[in-house]
Write a structure and sequence with these properties.
The complex is a heterodimer of chains A (about 110) and B (about 120). With about 110 residues, chain A is mainly β. Chain A is built from no helices and eleven strands. Helices cover about 0% and strands about 55% of the residues of chain B. In chain B, the strands form two sheets. In chain B, strands 2, 4, 5, 6, 9, 10 and 11 form a seven-stranded mixed beta sheet that branches. Chain B has a four-stranded antiparallel beta sheet with strand order 1-3-8-7, with no helix packed on it. Chain B is globular. In chain B, about 35% of the residues are buried. The chains are: A mainly beta (about 110), B mainly beta (about 120).
Chain lengths: ~110, ~120
């Protein structure tokens, strides 16, 4: 299985801050990576797919980059509704598709 | 807009089987892939398996011996059966629709629509 490792596990930030989350794959996955946002008690929501493509309806303050083994999710200006846990998912090596362990974005 | 809804028992005894159903509304189950994904309390996400509307399936090798996913296109539903439950199977179970992107002869899958999830507790 491809192991996905996210860092940091949690980050404290203020509204308006720029936040960057990293996801590293245990082997190259080209650009086949997605990012999801999950709020407490809710299902995950697809934000970005194919490393950098924004899912329809997702605000442009979210962006993704990377290829191979190293990827980043950036929130350019953190909004109150962005406090959540973020997961990466690799889609290159299957089965199984695998997720990172999550990064919690908390209010400073 | 398509919506998914999981249904099934919230409490299952150890060693008993689990049966969950996902009902798709606002759209057809046809022409899509559909997955089950679970999340133990306070932990990350684990993909369980998928079914294509035609009936073809693929499972996570770690669960393959205990999992069966089936589809009923006449009811716009697909189902999960998981056998020989233990406490480690306690989780929120989600059903999800795939978004498929194909390029260079290969296809890549993401999960673009999810049900709200249902908590399944394995306990005597």
């Amino acid at each position: 299985d491809v192991q996905m490792t996210q860092s940091p596990s949690s980050v404290s930030a203020s509204v308006g801050d720029r936040v960057t989350i990293t996801c590293r794959a245990s082997q190259g996955i080209l650009r086949w990576l997605a990012w999801y946002q999950q709020k407490p008690g809710k299902a995950p929501k697809l934000l970005i797919y194919a490393a950098s493509s924004l899912q329809s309806g997702v605000p442009s303050r979210f962006s993704g980059s990377g290829s191979g083994t190293d990827f980043t999710l950036t929130i350019s200006s953190l909004q109150p509704e962005d406090f959540a846990t973020y997961y990466c998912q690799q889609a290159n090596s299957f089965p199984p598709w695998t997720f990172g362990q999550g990064t919690k974005v908390e209010i400073k | 807009q398509v919506q998914l809804q999981e249904s099934g028992p919230g409490l299952v005894k150890p060693s008993d089987p689990l049966s969950l159903t996902c009902t798709v509304s606002g759209g057809s189950i046809s022409s899509y892939y559909w997955s089950w994904i679970r999340q133990p309390p306070g932990k990350g996400l684990e993909w369980i398996g998928y079914i294509y509307y035609s009936g073809s399936t693929k499972y996570n090798p770690s669960l393959k011996s205990r999992v069966t996913i089936s589809v009923d296109t006449s009811k716009n539903q697909f189902s999960l059966e998981l056998n020989s439950l233990t406490a480690a199977d306690t989780a929120v179970y989600y059903c999800a629709r795939h978004r498929e992107d194909c390029t260079g002869g290969s296809c890549y899958h993401w999960f673009d629509t999810w049900g709200p999830g249902t908590l399944v507790t394995v306990s005597s």
